[in-house]
Structures are given as structure tokens and as C-alpha cells.
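Customer escalation, tier 2.

The customer says the design service returned an amino acid string that "doesn't look like it belongs to this structure." They asked us to rerun it and document both sides in this ticket. The original C-alpha cells are below, unchanged.
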């Protein structure tokens, strides 16, 4: 881990579940109020807060992209299984 990255890394791990989850799946970014509260608790202020916020946000963005890639891969694999089984995207739709 690069020097100086420990604080934002620990912050992201502490905050990674402090987000909204969609009813149909999907996750929103970590909320600013959560990052702000964490920073206030650990006395991260001024330019250090701006850096902390940017780094936690960048890590979270990468995490969300990873989650989306996994969901897309699972959906593609499921569609392929259905195609091979002779069914269309809708479970009861036969493929000619």
C-alpha cells in the first residue's frame, strides 16, 4: 500500500456499507454525510479532508464498477445458460 493510503483505506472499509441499496439491486456511492461524520470523528479537516474525501470516493467508484462488472457477467452467463437450454431471456419463451 502506498505511503499515506492507510487512512483512506481504513475509512473506505469502515464506510463501505454506509450506502443506499436499490430494491432491484444496485448500490449507490457512500454518502457524503457518512464520509464527513467519519472525518469529523477522526479530526480530518481542511485540505486533508478534501484529499480523504477524494480518495475514499475514488476507491468507492472502483468498487462500484467492480460490482457492476460482476453483475453484468452473471447476467451474461445466465442468458447464455438459457440460450443453450433452448429458452429465451424470459424463462418460458422458447427460442426457435
Amino acid at each position: 500500500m502506498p505511503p499515506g493510503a492507510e487512512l483512506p483505506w481504513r475509512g473506505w472499509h469502515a464506510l463501505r456499507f454506509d450506502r443506499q441499496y436499490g430494491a432491484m439491486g444496485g448500490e449507490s456511492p457512500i454518502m457524503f454525510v457518512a464520509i464527513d461524520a467519519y472525518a469529523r470523528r477522526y479530526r480530518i479537516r481542511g485540505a486533508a479532508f478534501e484529499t480523504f474525501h477524494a480518495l475514499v470516493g475514488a476507491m468507492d467508484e472502483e468498487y462500484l464498477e467492480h460490482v457492476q462488472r460482476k453483475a453484468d457477467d452473471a447476467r451474461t452467463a445466465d442468458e447464455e445458460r438459457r440460450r443453450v437450454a433452448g429458452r429465451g431471456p424470459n424463462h418460458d419463451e422458447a427460442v426457435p
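Tier 2 assessment: The sequence is consistent with the input. The CA atoms of residues 2 and 9 lie 10 Å apart. The two ends are 53 Å apart (CA to CA). Sent an explanation to the customer and offered a walkthrough call.
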